[in-house]
Each structure stands twice: as structure tokens, then as C-alpha cells.
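Suppose you are handed a protein chain with no further information: no name, no annotation, nothing but its sequence. What can you learn? This example shows the usual starting point.
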Amino acid sequence: MSTLAASAPSALAASPRPSIAWIGLGIMGSPMSENLIKAGYQVTGYTLEREKLDRLAAAGGTAAGSVAAAVRDADVVITMVPASPQVEAVAYGPEGILENARPGTLLIDMSSITPQTSIDLAKAARDKGIRVLDAPVSGGEAGAIEAVLSIMVGGEQADFETAQPIFEALGRTVVRCGPHGSGQTVKAANQLIVAVNIQACAEAVVFLEKSGVDLGAALDVLGGGLAGSTVLARKRDNFLNRDFKPGFRIDLHHKDMGIVTDAARAVGAILPVGAVVAQLVAGLRAQGDGGLDHSALLRAVQRLSGAQI
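A reasonable first move is to predict its three-dimensional structure. Written in C-alpha cells, the prediction is:
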């Protein structure tokens, strides 16, 4: 470990409330940044949508006019954007994070991207004296609002310890999973499990309804047994009410299934059920449902079962 990397965490830790730049104020980023403000952090944010910047300002944060302006005086930079291309867009280039953040800054990428993108970012940042953690999350919009996210982290132990108070303001389960890229690998596995679980729940819903069973009662008893899961608990009302307002969009889960498929191929892991669900997610997106919540996998099962939607 370099002298800079070894000394910077203790210097940063000496300040109980490091200043934070937050890049990306979407469905997840807005409530997460607001939870940091509630916890007493000074947050300066940047995103492309003016209304999201206004929301941050109304919550007590500061709106910046660019990535460069947001990160210039920050102790910690947090990114929460849709995918690898967006992470690369905000990190690299003359107006990006690496060219404008101060040496010693801790960059925490909480986006869901490929493990290799995280590894490459950490290497590039090291040359600038910037430390990096990949820290994707699970829990969806509700978990972000309630600050009960699961946060899976890759990077150096010392940097993880420095960031832990920030993570604890955002989530309930915070675990360092290994070196750079490990957080993204665990997130890919998470998205595989979630997609397969939603698909199984959707198939059960269609089966129950076609059998004439009281769906609400059935989901209640299933939720209390071995079939119960966080997915079933969180998505129960979506299934019952056919409410697919996006908490996590099909478009993003399609991206994540591509990540897990590619990463599994690279290490020689065979994912037969995951491959089928990845195609079902892709099919739902091709039918125009990409902007809906991923619980809309129910719509795909309904179509396969003869429903006109």
C-alpha cells in the first residue's frame, strides 16, 4: 500500500462528518443522498435533471453545476448512476472525477456495473492518488428511502473502515466482500437470485389465480413458510394490485443479467436457470415493458399463459 493510501484514511477519519459529493440523483440516489443529509453530512450533488437538483437543495444539500464543481472540495465522492458507461463518463475526462478531485479523496461507486469496470477504475484512480471502493446496493427504492439497504463492498480494508459510518447511514447490512470488484461480483449474484425469485413468484401467482385460489390469502401463508422471501414480501402488493410503478426497472435488471451472464462465462460458471430468466427479462423489455418495475415479470408469465395484456 502506498504512503498516501495508508495515511489518508486516518486523516479523513479525524473529521466526523467529511464533506460528500454525490453524483447521480435518480430513484436510488435521491433518497440515499437525503439520508446522508439527515445524518448530518454536508452533501453537494450533481445530476442531469434540474428537478432532482432542486429536490436535493430543498432537503438541505447543495446543487452543483457540473461533476467537476461537485467534487473539487469533497472529502468523499459517491457515484450512483445506471451502468458502466455512465460511471466511465463521470469518472474520466477533463471534467470528470479523477481530474478534479483532490488527492486523498475517497471515491465510492455505488452503481451496479461490471466487476472489471470497478477494477479498472481503481487502477486509474490510484495513479491520481484517489482511493476507490465499489459498493453496490440491494433493497430497491424502498430500501433506499428507509436506509435499510444491503451494501456489498470491494476494496481495501482501511478504506472500508473509513467509509463505514457513511454506509451505516444508508444501509443495515454492510459487508466488505474482498478486493476491488468483489462488491460488484456479489451484486451480480444478488441480481441473479432476485430475478429468479421474482420469476418463481410470478409463476406461482398465475398458477394460483388460474386455480381460483384467494391470491392475498395464498401469498400471506406462503410468506410465512419456507417459500417466504424478502422479494415476496416487498413485491406482494405489486402482484396483487398489478402495480408496476418502477422501484427497480426492467431495463436495469436486463443490464444486470447481462453483467452476471458475462461474468459467469468469464469464470466458467454455468447458470442454466439464470440464462432462462435473463431471456425472459429481455423478452419483457422487447415488448415495451422496460420502464416498469421488475415485478412486471408477472406480465410475461400472464402472456405465456394466454392473457391479453
